[in-house]
């Protein structure tokens, strides 16, 4: 393996884990050394093996028993198990990128503070709703001090797996805390709707910001800038509505998936998977720079 290509492992074999595998295999900076599931008979682990990946079952303990060294481990399991995963991996030297809403690690949103990703060994990605909303909210808050921020995410039921359903409370709490952190709003509220509509709707986040002085023209410029930055990472990200009236801003964003292994309505998976790869590649790029400086 070239010195600037990092060996990675994926914990979790749901649709999110499988999308990560594809992204890793397409990255010039990453290699997928191992995919870890709970049981050998899981459909996702079988699919990972069919893709040519080395696989094992037994969770994080099986990963630690591997004879490989991993620069990065992606945790695509659930918020309940993540703290134990970090406790076991902390001494391994690997960077752990958390795709669960566990609220642990340094929170990274690529277009907001992605330049900090390489400096941290334990990275949290908030949630899909946080990744979709915080770029817009942070952009608005950079100009107008928000008294109140509200974010309502709507995801298609078929794109919300068992682990996500078990972590709904963690999703709400972690996303609300991250929105407060990145906007410094006096008050923040987060909600999640799981829609059983047919056909499945695209992933959508509706945001409300109450801020004195917010006006349509400047707000639209801020939102357009955030949208353009996000589209460089998530091509299916688009603002569908933006209004500012009497100090109340309302923005709606839709995210559609553009990759082969997840359906078009599963933008919730696309946005957080893209963030995970961005954060890991920042670490790889920093290592590449170190190598060049020593040549």
Automatic annotation (TrEMBL):
Pfam families: AcetDehyd-dimer (PF09290). SUPFAM superfamilies: Glyceraldehyde-3-phosphate dehydrogenase-like, C-terminal domain (SSF55347), NAD(P)-binding Rossmann-fold domains (SSF51735). NAD(+) binds at residue 268. HAMAP family: Ac_ald_DH_ac. It catalyses: acetaldehyde + NAD(+) + CoA = acetyl-CoA + NADH + H(+). It comes from the Bacteria. InterPro entries: Acetaldehyde_dehydrogenase, Acetylaldehyde_DH_C, NAD(P)-bd_dom_sf, Semialdehyde_DH_NAD-bd. The keyword Oxidoreductase applies. It is an enzyme of class 1 (oxidoreductase). The lineage of its organism: Bacteria, Bacillati, Actinomycetota, Actinomycetes, Kitasatosporales. This is Acetaldehyde dehydrogenase. Keywords: Aromatic hydrocarbons catabolism, NAD, Oxidoreductase. It comes from Streptomyces niveus (Streptomyces spheroides).
């Amino acid at each position: 393996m070239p010195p600037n290509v990092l060996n990675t492992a994926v914990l979790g074999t749901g649709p999110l884990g499988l999308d990560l595998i594809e992204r890793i295999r397409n990255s010039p900076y990453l290699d997928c050394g191992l995919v870890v599931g709970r049981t050998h008979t899981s459909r996702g682990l079988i699919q990972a093996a069919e893709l040519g990946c080395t696989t094992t079952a037994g969770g994080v303990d099986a990963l630690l028993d591997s004879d490989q060294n991993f620069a990065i481990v992606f945790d695509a399991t659930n918020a309940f198990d993540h703290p134990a995963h970090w406790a076991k991996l902390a001494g391994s030297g690997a960077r752990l990128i958390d795709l669960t809403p566990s609220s642990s690690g340094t929170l990274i949103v690529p277009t907001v503070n992605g330049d900090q990703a390489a400096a941290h060994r334990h990275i949290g990605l908030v949630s899909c709703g946080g990744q979709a909303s915080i770029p817009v909210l942070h952009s608005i808050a950079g100009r107008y001090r928000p008294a109140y921020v509200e974010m309502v995410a709507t995801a298609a039921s078929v794109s919300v797996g068992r682990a996500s359903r078990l972590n709904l409370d963690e999703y709400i709490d972690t996303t609300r805390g991250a929105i407060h952190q990145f906007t410094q709003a006096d008050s923040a509220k987060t909600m999640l709707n799981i829609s059983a509509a047919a056909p499945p709707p695209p992933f959508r986040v509706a945001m409300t910001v109450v801020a004195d002085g917010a006006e349509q023209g400047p707000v639209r410029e801020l939102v357009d800038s955030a949208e353009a930055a996000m589209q460089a990472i998530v091509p299916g990200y688009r603002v569908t509505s933006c209004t500012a009236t009497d100090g109340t801003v309302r923005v709606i964003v839709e995210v559609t998936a553009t990759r082969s292994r997840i359906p078009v309505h599963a933008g919730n998976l696309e946005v957080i998977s893209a963030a995970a790869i961005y954060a890991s590649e920042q670490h790889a790029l920093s290592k590449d720079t170190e190598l060049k400086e020593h040549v």
